[in-house]
Amino acid sequence: MSEEQKQDTIHDVPKDTKALREIIRKAARQIEEFRQQRKALNAEIQAVFERTLAKGIPKDALKGALRDNSASSEQLAQIDSAYAICRAALDKPLQIRLDVDRAA
């Protein structure tokens, strides 16, 4: 057991657990509130994906672009090249060459 796990384990349960039970109840309420907030945020994110899908942008394409958004130019070049190679290796080569500046 790691040191962190040891710290998370209660070895000596107090005889009066009233205060501890209140802490647990409060934590449970907070967690449920956060879960509800996350559920609402997930619904909003899904709505954004649906709007972009309605314009012809698949969810996976946008998710991939967002995932790569923080990559450097060098990292993006590696990702793009590797992706093209992977697609070709799986007999699914890239199907389009798009000049996005002209397409916009």
Question: What's the arrangement of secondary structure elements?
Answer:
Elements: H1 3-7, H2 18-54, H3 59-68, H4 73-89, H5 100-103
Summed up, what is this model?
This protein has five helices and no strands. The protein has helices at residues 3-7, 18-54, 59-68, 73-89, 100-103.
What does this structure look like?
The protein has five helices and no strands. With 104 residues, the protein is mostly helical. The protein folds into two domains: 55 residues; 34 residues. The protein is elongated.
Number of domains: 2
Distance between the termini: 57 Å
Shape assignment: elongated
* Average pLDDT taken over every residue: 88
The H/E string reads HHHHH
Helix content: over 70%
Class inferred from helices and paired strands: mainly alpha
**Beta strands, count:** 0
Q: Oligomerization state of this entry?
A: single chain
Largest sheet: none
The total count of helices amounts to 5
Whole-angstrom Rg: 24 Å
> Which blocks of ≥5 consecutive residues have pLDDT under 50?
none
Strand content: under 5%
What descriptive keywords fit this protein?
104 residues, mainly alpha, 2 domains, 5 helices, elongated
